[in-house]
């Protein structure tokens, strides 16, 4: 980025032509939160796509230069394979391009966290592709199509199924279904993004005495759940108030998790995931 917030990028960049790249979205409160976990996912993605390993200390210094003076913000890192290759065949070696973007922290309604959100089921399905599952790659047309399905401002999110009718995630969130003292979350072996806050819940919940199960779930499992939780690194944790004609309460599991996420500073600073 330049001082005028402009970017020089080749029109032949493979990120533009093929979505050949990755991205990370960081919640920022003076520093990027959970830097190490983002870095691990970024390294895994680069390895999967055949990119050179990212220089995380150098990227951290770049990130610090982009962070605005506001108390909270959002950083986005785009990595493309760069220019080269013939058609789909990538160049060897790759010459990745790193692009940093800064955004204001989203101003979601306060009652989203306090009383829950209304969600819907999307018609658009996620393809099952184990080689890309879990990665934050630049191909997001499925999510774009899904998000075009509704315009009601009172609907905060849409759940997406894969082509085998398994519930996978929201358009921008990971999903947890609460039944008793057990948290169920979809297995992401064939589709979906392995989110940072999802990892936080998978780590924290057993410490609080909850059982966590990763498996395959259908819409009926969502409708029969005691609570539904949605997570990502920007929103933290939302509780679902309504799905179709099914209403839920903000239960003790979501309240307990949210309390401990804040107490242990998962959603405030990088105490649990230092930038090292």
TrEMBL record:
Gene3D superfamilies: 3.30.470.10, D-amino Acid Aminotransferase, subunit A, domain 2 (3.20.10.10). One of its GO terms (biological process) is 4-aminobenzoate biosynthetic process. InterPro entries: Aminodeoxychorismate_lyase_IV, Aminotrans_IV, Aminotrans_IV_CS, Aminotransferase-like, BCAT-like_C, BCAT-like_N, Class-IV_PLP-Dep_Aminotrnsfr. Its EC number is 4.1.3.38. It is an enzyme of class 4 (lyase). Keywords: Folate biosynthesis, Lyase, Pyridoxal phosphate. The keyword Iron-sulfur does not apply. GO terms for cellular component: cytosol. Pathway: Cofactor biosynthesis; tetrahydrofolate biosynthesis; 4-aminobenzoate from chorismate: step 2/2. It comes from the Bacteria. GO terms for molecular function: 4-amino-4-deoxychorismate lyase activity; pyridoxal phosphate binding. Its cofactor is pyridoxal 5'-phosphate. It catalyses: 4-amino-4-deoxychorismate = 4-aminobenzoate + pyruvate + H(+). NCBIfam families: pabC_Proteo, PRK06092.1. Involved in the biosynthesis of p-aminobenzoate (PABA), a precursor of tetrahydrofolate. Converts 4-amino-4-deoxychorismate into 4-aminobenzoate (PABA) and pyruvate. Belongs to the class-IV pyridoxal-phosphate-dependent aminotransferase family. Homodimer. This is Aminodeoxychorismate lyase. It comes from Beggiatoa alba B18LD.
């Amino acid at each position: 980025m330049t001082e005028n917030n402009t970017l020089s990028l080749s029109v032949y960049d493979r990120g533009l032509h093929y979505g050949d790249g990755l991205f990370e979205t960081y919640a920022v409160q003076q520093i990027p939160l959970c830097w190490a976990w983002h870095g691990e996912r970024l390294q895994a993605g680069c390895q999967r796509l055949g990119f050179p390993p990212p220089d995380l200390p150098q990227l951290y210094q770049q990130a610090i230069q982009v962070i605005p003076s506001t108390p909270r913000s959002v950083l986005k890192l785009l990595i493309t394979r760069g220019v080269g290759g013939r058609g789909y065949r990538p160049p060897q070696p790759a010459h990745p391009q790193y692009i940093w973007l800064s955004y204001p922290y989203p101003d979601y309604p306060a009652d989203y966290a306090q009383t829950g959100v209304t969600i819907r089921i999307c018609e658009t399905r996620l393809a099952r592709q184990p080689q890309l599952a879990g990665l934050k790659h630049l191909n997001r047309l499925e999510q774009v199509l899904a998000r075009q399905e509704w315009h009601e401002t009172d609907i905060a999110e849409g759940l997406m199924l894969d082509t085998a009718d398994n519930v996978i995630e929201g358009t921008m969130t990971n999903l947890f279904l609460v039944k008793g003292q057990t948290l169920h979350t979809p297995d992401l072996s064939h589709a979906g993004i392995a989110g940072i806050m999802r990892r936080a819940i998978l780590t924290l919940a057993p410490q609080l005495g909850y059982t966590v199960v990763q498996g395959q779930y259908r819409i009926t499992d969502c409708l029969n759940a005691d609570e539904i939780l949605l997570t990502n690194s920007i929103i933290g944790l939302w509780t679902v108030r309504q799905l179709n004609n099914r209403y839920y309460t903000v239960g003790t599991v979501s309240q307990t998790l949210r309390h401990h996420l804040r107490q242990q500073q998962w959603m405030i600073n990088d105490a649990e995931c230092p930038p090292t």
